[in-house]
Amino acid sequence: MDIGPRIKLARAKAGLSVRELAERVGVSATAISKFERGEASPRQSTLLRLAKALSVGVEYFFREVKVETLNPAYRKHSKLGKRLQEAIEATIVEAVERHLLVEELFPKGFFPESKLPSFPITSVDEAERAADELRRQWKLGSDPIEDLCGRLENRGIKVIAIDAPKGFDGFSCWVNGQIPVIAYNVNAPGDRQRFNLAHELGHLVLDADPPVDVEKAAHRFAGAFLVPAEAVHVELGRKRSDLSLDELLLLKNEYGVSIQAWIWRAFDLEIIDRDTYNTLFRRLSQRGWRTEEPGSVSLEKPRRLRLLIHQALAERLITPSYAATLLHGGLRTVKPKPKEFPQPKDDLVREYMENRELTAFEDVDLEDFHEYEDRQGTSLESQS
Q: Sorted alphabetically, which CDD domains does this protein's record hold (predicted)?
């Protein structure tokens, strides 16, 4: 089996260059490049060091490649460096693979089919109508949306939470041409997370013709999806000469939408004019609320993958050790039930996890191993 693509993916996810990984593993950069291109295979000892350097289990390298293509719904001009962008995309690929691995455990037809609609638009204003139509199709009414992540996941969207630095808001893509994916930054405030998720949903469902500004259309879609016009008119009225920041703070807490987003909605729907819009943002700046608003909105948390893993464990489709692998150790306290688990078939990953001869040395201190080889006068690099 060619594990080169898996090594390259893990390296990208870790944000390491070929040379940096080589230094951590104790081999040459040329050796790492050959491993990734499939021109050479690492020895068992080198494979152990690769796994430790990349913070993955050895089984990771033997997983079946399930993500063939990753097509961004919209490629933003990100301020993030190339390596960080690659790390984020590699993280998304790895997370989607875990979703697919778990879903394959269940019988065909276990999950309801769900297909995202596509809304052609020729102007930014039409994004508002698209959001209203999607709410109608999903039977959301005009009420605040609780658990936005859950709503998206129930519609077949893979939602990936990423621990990313400031500058990354969200990313949406299609995996293998048909699986919708949204990734978002867990370090953003709850209201920002919700807006970013809705914004990326807009990129997935809007089909904008030039010269429509795609980002502005997704922005308008997000505001309308989170707070439809009907709700805005109920809360603010149809025409206002001014808005109170304190009333908007109350609405923020109720709808999970920022004060700034409420001002945008009021302006988009012509409830306030341009002068009032500018005045409100000056007030925000005077209070220091442009960078950090008051009020707390609950963080969004994907739960579908964890739920499916627990279900698979309850149905004895997987072992506790394999469940822990899929959750990156999240089920360390799960105890095996007094029932013999069926032997997995045709799955190298699960075979690895159950084979103690293969996993016995996975957590060894490799520094001791280096010292032993040095005493034997053997070069790890030359063995690779």
A: HTH_XRE
Question: Residues 236, 237, 243, 244: is their CA dihedral positive or negative?
Answer: negative
- The C-alpha atoms of residue 329 and residue 42 are separated, in whole angstroms, by 26
Whole-prediction pTM value?
A: 0.77
d(CA 170, CA 200): 7
Sequence-ordered list of residues with C-beta below 8 angstroms from that of 98, at least 6 positions apart, any chain: 305, 326
Q: What are the backbone angles phi and psi of residue 15, rounded to the nearest 5°? A: 70, 30
- Measured N-to-C along each axis, helices 304-314 and 82-103 cross at an angle, to the nearest 10 degrees, of 30
Closest CA to 55 of 15, 17, 26: 15
Helices within the chain (DSSP H only):
4-14, 18-25, 29-37, 44-54, 82-103, 126-137, 148-154, 190-205, 214-226, 229-236, 245-255, 259-268, 274-287, 304-314, 320-326, 348-354, 356-359, 366-375, 380-383
Residue matched to tokens 């089996």 = 1
Residue 20's nearest CA partner among 69, 83, 77 is: 83
Predicted confidence at residue 139, as pLDDT, reads 95
Sign of CA dihedral 116, 221, 69, 156: negative
CA dist., res. 90 & res. 126, Å (int): 34
Q: Which domains does the chain have, with CATH numbers?
A: 1-57+362-384 (1.10.260.40), 67-302 (1.10.10.2910), 304-361 (no CATH)
Beta bridge partner(s), residue 179: 175
- Tell how strand 119-121 and strand 70-72 pair up: unpaired
- Cα 133-134-135 angle, rounded to 5 deg: 90
Give mean pLDDT in consecutive 10-residue pieces for the chain, a chain of 384 residues.
Answer: 86 90 94 92 93 89 81 72 84 89 87 87 96 97 95 95 89 91 95 97 94 96 98 97 97 97 98 98 95 94 94 92 75 35 44 46 42 41 40
Give pLDDT, residue 376: 43
Judge contact between 180 and 186, C-beta under 8 A.
no
User: How far apart, in whole angstroms, are the C-alpha atoms of residue 55 and residue 345?
Assistant: 27
Locate tokens 């291109």: which residue? 37
Question: Residue 259, Cβ neighbours under 10 Å: how many?
Answer: 25
DSSP code string of 188-234:
S-HHHHHHHHHHHHHHHHEEEPTTS-HHHHHHHHHHHHHS-HHHHHH
